[in-house]
Amino acid sequence: MLALATTWLFASSAAFPDAPRIDAPLVFDELRPASGYGAIIPFEPRGQVNLDRVWWTAPRAETVKQLGERFGVPAEEMRALDPSFIGPRVRAGQRVLVYRHDARTPSRSVGAPNRGRIEHAAPFPEGSGWRLRAYRPRAWATRHVVGELVSAIGEWRERFPTAQPVLIGELSRRDGGRVRPHRSHRSGRDVDIGYVLLAPPAAHKFTVATPHTLDAAATWALVQQLLASGSVESIFMAARVQVQLLPHALPHVDPARLRSVFSVLATDPRARKRAILRPWGGHDDHMHVRFACTDADIRCGAADRRRSKKKRKKGRAKRR
Fold first, then answer.
1. With contact defined as beta carbons under 8 Å apart, do 134 and 59 qualify?
2. Whole-angstrom distance, CA of residue 320 vs CA of residue 305
3. Prior bond to 137 cis, omega within 30?
4. How far apart are CA 266 and CA 278, in angstroms?
5. From the CB of residue 225, how many other CB atoms can be counted at a distance below 10 Å?
6. 78-102: burial string, b at 16+ Cβ within 10 Å, e else
7. Strand 108-110 to strand 53-57: parallel, antiparallel, or no bridges (unpaired)?
8. Nearest by Cα to 78 from 93, 62, 100, 59
9. What is the DSSP annotation of 124-187?
């Protein structure tokens, strides 16, 4: 388990001379990343999040069957969750119970992000600091991931109450598995989050982060809050976005740790891969946050990949 610490990350801006200047308390299983997975970074104590029940709002008038397809919850299951939920149709703005926690069924990630699944996933709740898509079959993750992310965004929102809400994109399906066109997002530990913008987007669509669109100070604060949780393994983020965040990170980052956070400052290719913020194609309009494994998860992360590689080698040997 990670140890409690309070030190932060600081460095000279000379490294980048061209960088721009610049519903009730939740209850979830208190799990921290298991040792051996992800980066060991400082974290702060968190407020708890109540995921015992989650309600979503119907965005339009439609049949219960259509709403079930929109939310990824069969109509029969929604009726079983809430016996008072009757009638063949829902009205726009109607609150619908989509999840009720059962303590006998632990929520956990099984396998690697690119070949795993989820057991007893939880839906990401609605909130004032973020926006969910109207179509939500892929708005599910482990209870740990949902709780940690809700706490981080909530704490960030308290610091930046006037900032634009962040857009929540793809998480995982209720049972995990393939989420096209992604290669990952299968085991309930991956979340796509839009960068904080200076102006609201015209629709629920990610916007490329440029000095004219990006609220760099608020975006760095969100990243900082995620890192403070101690639950994040890595964040995939375009190099040019990292450069825009650097001036806001410098006052808060220990020089000895700066390169372990920003891959754009690492000179060694291996060090770049080990940094928390890592460049990856297609992440100039959103960041992909991967949460670390916990002790409750099964065959999680790198260990699962090593086993799979051994199995493939054995399979090839047999075919030969």
1. yes
2. 23
3. no
4. 10
5. 22
6. bbebeeebeeeebeeebebbbbebe
7. unpaired
8. 100
9. PPP-TTEE--S--TT-EE-HHHHHHHHHHHHHHHHH-TTSPPEEB---B-TTB---TT-SS--S
Q: Are 260 and 274 in contact (CB under 8 A)?
A: yes
> What CA–CA distance (Å, rounded) separates 115 from 183?
8
Query: Strand, coil or helix: what is 108?
Result: strand
Backbone angles phi, psi at 271, to 5 degrees: -65, -35
pTM for this predicted structure:
0.79
- In sequence order, what DSSP letters do the residues of 48-96 get, joined into one string? -B--SEEEEE-SS-EEHHHHHHHHTS-HHHHHHH-TT--SSEE-TT-EE
Q: How many CB atoms lie within 10 A of CB 171?
A: 28
CA dist., res. 302 & res. 293, Å (int): 10
DSSP string computed for 56-67: EE-SS-EEHHHH
How many Cα atoms occupy the beta-carbon half-sphere of 127 within 13 Å? 31
pLDDT for 186-217, tens place per residue? 889 999 999 999 999 888 899 999 999 999 99
Tell me the percentage of the chain whose pLDDT exceeds 90.
60
Average pLDDT of every residue of the chain: 81
* Report for 100-114, 134-148, 177-191, 252-266: range of highest mean pLDDT: 134-148
